[in-house]
Design goal:
Helix content is 79%, strand content 0%. By secondary structure, it is an all-alpha fold.
Length: 105
């Protein structure tokens, strides 16, 4: 192989490694951001509603919701979702995040 071919191959490998590293960093940042948002929502709900009777009554429904990946939505859980969103209107959490937070209480 000529020297130009070897330099070209080395350059391509370097660029490919950089692209993979950049892709890994972007993916990692996205995952960490999503986990942080979920953790923030969970801690906000768990600290505010630990002794709330409506939320505590929804624990079994929350377990069913999480276990069925959102397929089973009990009446007590729906009531707890409405209650939490009414009490904390600025909370930006999905139903799945709220159900996990209720289970974490």
């Amino acid at each position: 192989m000529s020297r130009n071919h070897l330099l070209g191959a080395a350059l391509l490998l370097t660029l490919a490694g950089t692209a993979n590293a950049t892709s890994f960093i972007v993916t990692t940042d996205a995952v960490v951001g999503a986990v942080a948002a979920s953790t923030d929502a969970t801690s906000d709900v768990s600290s505010s509603f630990r002794d709330d009777k409506i939320v505590q009554a929804a624990r079994d429904d929350a377990a069913s919701f999480v276990g069925s990946q959102g397929e089973i939505r009990g009446a007590k859980l729906e009531s707890a979702f409405n209650h939490i969103r009414h009490q904390a209107p600025t909370l930006q959490a999905s139903d799945a995040q709220l159900a996990q937070a209720i289970l974490a209480l």
